[in-house]
Amino acid sequence: MLNLAILISGRGSNMEAILKSIKKKKMPINPAVVISNKPDAKGLKIAEKLGVKTEIVISKGFKGDRWDYDKKIITVLKRYGVTPTNGFVCLAGFMRIISPQFIRKYKNRIMNIHPALLPAFSGLEVQKQAVDYGVKYSGCTVHLADERVDTGPIIIQAVVKVNDNDTAETLAKRILKQEHRIYPEAVRLFAKGKIKISGRKTKIS
Amino acid sequence: MLNLAILISGRGSNMEAILKSIKKKKMPINPAVVISNKPDAKGLKIAEKLGVKTEIVISKGFKGDRWDYDKKIITVLKRYGVTPTNGFVCLAGFMRIISPQFIRKYKNRIMNIHPALLPAFSGLEVQKQAVDYGVKYSGCTVHLADERVDTGPIIIQAVVKVNDNDTAETLAKRILKQEHRIYPEAVRLFAKGKIKISGRKTKIS
Which candidate from B117, B154, B203 shows the least CB-CB separation from A117? Predict the structure, then answer.
């Protein structure tokens, strides 16, 4: 059994989708812990309702650099058995940049989801970027975290049509539906050892 | 009737798709001229077989800047009635960057096709870029030319799945099929006045 940690900062709707899917599809995954950097993250209560342990590692006012903070996260991860050999980490709206040291320690074991078809529209306010650009299709991307932001090997993407009258909000809503579909699917593939990584490319077997 | 010029440098397979579609769908377009910057472009013979006049404006060894060259193109365009009020221009594998002056004179009347889902993978060797990046979807984009490269308002995009074993060549082949579908469709929409442009966004009515 793989031990999973999910890192959140807010409602964590992708966290919820993953946790429910693990149960429903009987994936060989132990959802060990949900960690928030914000004490009032709504996802904490949702995780508890779903029977998953929660931890808070406050980032606001934290004295120290990114790696100092991430070391605190890693301490929690280890306490729950989420190790680089026996665990993996899903970022689900975790509003912090991960340090290269953390990425290297958990190489190819940290997943993220991004609400665009990367490499298009990285960064923030992603759906607004897509609407403002005037693309006819956008989507979402589950990828492994690497040492830069939004650039790691892609596991799954889903395409979403952009309508002429879409706002950032209406587009975000339709993209989110697809996020809730592909993120659990990527977790399942990972747990079943079906993702082969070579360089920056993945093959699903 | 709109007068259309198509600019090519090689085989011009998109040119062929457009010309055939104009005839087949009886679009209100006069395919006035095909212009190549290379005298040996294979598309010239194809255009002639389809009953379209051809012209060559040699770029190799041309003394002068981009705008000097483009003025020669515009002279030819005008001779065939392809004016900024009564004509439009399709770039179909025309391997030159258009000058801002030309773009401004024919504002929103020059179309281009790009074998990727812009803004992802602009520039050259586009399908190789997509395969090397490891995206799961790519596609093609018909857009209006603006004063930078591959950045103008998008008219139509088509999505193409990237398979794990795709090479740049196999992917390019499948994308090309979609190019041959959406470029003629964009030309038809343009001719019928169905493309509304506001800022960098288009609406199809």
Answer: B117
- Percentage, residues of chain B above pLDDT 90: 98
- Please tell me which residue of chain B has the smallest CA distance to A120: B120
B128 to chain A nearest CA, in Å? 13
Cα B156 to Cα B140: distance, rounded to the nearest angstrom: 8
Q: What is the pLDDT of residues B185-200, one digit of tens each?
A: 999 999 999 999 999 9
User: Could you tell me the two tokens for A103?
Assistant: 């990425």
The C-alpha atoms of residue A41 and residue A55 are separated, in whole angstroms, by 11
Q: What is the mean pLDDT of chain B?
A: 97
Mean pLDDT of A98-116: 97
pLDDT band at B136 (very low <50, low <70, confident <90, very high): very high
CA distance B135 to chain A (A): 6
Inter-helix orientation angle B168-191/B126-133, to 10°? 120
Summarised one tens digit per residue, pLDDT across range B38-65 is 999 999 999 999 999 999 999 999 999 9
Identify the architecture of domain A112-205 in CATH: 3-Layer(aba) Sandwich (3.40)
Give the H or E element holding residue B90.
strand B87-91
CATH 3.30.420.10 assigned to domain A1-107? The reply is: no
Strand partners, A196: A203
Note whether B157 contacts A136, CB cutoff 8 Å.
Answer: yes
Residues of chain B with CATH 3.40.50.170: 1-107, 112-205
H/E stretch holding A7 reads strand A2-8
Q: Beta strand pairing status for A195-198 and A201-204?
A: antiparallel
What is the percent of chain A where pLDDT is above 70? 100
Q: Which residues of A touch B133 (CB under 8 A)?
A: 119, 154, 200
Cα B170 from chain centroid (whole Å): 22
Three-state DSSP class for A175?
A: helix
Give the predicted TM-score (pTM) of the model. 0.95
